[in-house]
Write a structure and sequence with these properties.
By secondary structure, this protein is of the alpha/beta class. 43% of the residues lie in helices and 13% in strands. The structure holds uridine-5'-diphosphate-glucuronic acid.
């Protein structure tokens, strides 16, 4: 919404939320989300044509287009528990819109939703005949965290799904006009509403599948002395495959991939497509396997016991350039390390507040130190969880001197200079590459 306000000074954009603390943060100097470039565009438009408010009723009454971006987490109860999307917030919002709307509205699904949600939305909105016409569009968001502003400014595509009725097509054209203020027309694509809803789930499933594919091969590389970076390079140079999203890692995280794939799996099972469901479930299974592999590798390398050993986690965010820790592989890995009775020191440039909340209920010896040099002092091992650029430029000579010996580095993102670390004295265990150790 900040980007629309920034690019389209002729529109008035109001963001409403039920959470007054969040809205106050959006109205303050300290925004509740860390995203490079966001602060600048919010500050450029706020108070001019971008407003943050808790006045939901007023917002609904005044606006012509309503983007619904409520959360749709995986269900934690009842039918479809752990798999399907929890649509209770979505349902409530639809009812609120119906209650307060006094003029025709275009309702845009921005949240990622199961296919056919628009139908449910339409049914709720038209359940009381109050003379107001609602047109529901699907306009999924494809931005990635950390690069969100760039992705919004220069998107690969904007997708708008609509009903193929005259009023559906008219509403679709209105939304095309909004994006056409800054996105080239050939990158604004339209489709039927169900294709649009499904495309969002499929795009995330394909991206996650690539990571699970490369991570599964990283396990094979470790058994065969092949090097995953060399394999990824050779494979990615095939233009049909492309070289993006082929970085082996401790596993994918984030609030979307797992949730969306489970949602897809649930949908397939609902329609009796068991083989298709199993195929996509495999992507999630490999991701869980990869996280567990990190632990078993650490255990076997560090002489089959981690009890009482101090392990420093470099990074906790699910990826670099964000403070977001939702579904971060570091969450699972930390819990497993604590089960093994290791002591944890966690460092991250942006995510320590969220990390503390994530691990709040865990009983164990965990400390949080922002400076990685200080955090690693006295530790037996460093494990890189997040690919923050700063970790490549640390004073590893000093770090090595301050650590217990033998000193281990597990590079779960393959971002460090392994040869150099080995020469300093570390025993180095990358992902999907032969380890460099000083053991005979
Ligand atoms: C993802 C998609 O990339 C976006 O297109 C989508 O809009 C978004 O989900 C969403 O549905 O909201 P995001 O989760 O922000 O974006 O981040 P990604 O860059 O996709 O990374 C996801 C995870 O995969 C991270 O943990 C990252 O470290 C990991 N990853 C990524 C790898 O392990 N290897 C790679 O080569 C790339």
């Amino acid at each position: 919404m900040a980007m629309i306000a920034y690019k389209c000074p002729q529109y008035r954009v109001t963001v409403v939320d039920i959470n007054p603390t969040r809205i106050a943060q959006w109205n303050s100097d300290d925004l509740p989300v860390y995203e490079p470039g966001l602060e600048e565009i919010v500050k450029a438009s706020r108070g001019k044509n971008l407003f943050f408010s808790t006045e939901i009723e007023k917002g609904i009454k005044e606006c012509d287009i309503i983007f619904v971006s409520v959360n749709t987490p995986t269900k934690t109860f009842g039918s479809g528990v752990g798999m399907s999307a929890d649509l209770q917030y979505w349902d409530k919002t639809a009812k609120q819109i119906r209650q307060f709307a006094e003029s025709d509205k275009i309702i845009v699904e921005k949240s990622t939703l199961p296919v056919k949600t628009a139908l449910a939305m339409e049914r709720i909105l038209t359940a009381t005949n109050n003379g107001v016409h609602f047109e529901v569009l699907s306009n999924p968001e494809f931005l990635a965290e950390g690069t969100g502003i760039k992705d919004l400014e220069d998107p690969d595509r904007i997708l708008i799904g609509s009903r193929e009725t005259p009023s559906g097509l008219k509403a679709r054209d209105s939304l095309v006009e909004v994006y056409a203020n800054w996105v080239p027309r050939d990158r604004i694509i339209t489709s039927n509403i169900w294709s649009s809803e499904l495309s969002k789930l499929v795009a995330n499933a394909f991206l996650a599948q690539r990571i699970s594919s490369i991570n599964s091969i990283s396990a094979l590389c470790e058994k065969t002395d092949a090097d995953i970076t060399e394999v990824a390079r050779a494979v990615g140079m095939d233009r049909r495959l492309g070289n993006k999203f082929l970085n082996a890692s401790v596993g994918f995280g984030g609030s979307c991939f797992k949730k969306d794939i489970l949602n897809l799996v649930y949908l397939c099972r609902h329609y009796g497509l068991e083989e298709v469901a199993d195929y996509w479930q495999g992507v999630v299974n490999i991701n869980e396997y990869q996280k567990e592999r990190v632990i078993t590798n650490m255990l076997s390398t560090m002489f089959n016991t981690l009890a009482g050993k101090r392990i420093c986690l470099f990074g906790f965010a699910f990826k670099a350039n964000t403070g977001d820790t939702r579904e971060s592989p570091a969450v699972t890995i930390s819990k497993r390390l604590i089960e093994e009775k290791a002591e944890l020191v966690i460092t991250d440039p942006k995510a320590l507040d969220n990390t503390k909340m994530d691990l709040d209920s865990i009983e164990g010896n965990i400390s949080y130190i922002e400076d990685p040099h200080e955090a690693s002092a006295g530790c037996d091992a460093i494990a890189v969880m997040t690919e923050w650029g700063v970790y490549a430029d640390l004073d590893f000579e000093m770090i090595y001197r301050s650590m217990a010996k033998p000193a281990f580095i597990f590079d779960g993102r393959n971002i460090l200079d392994h040869k150099r670390l080995f020469d300093i004295g570390f025993n180095v265990f990358p992902i999907g590459k032969p380890p460099l150790t000083h053991f005979k």
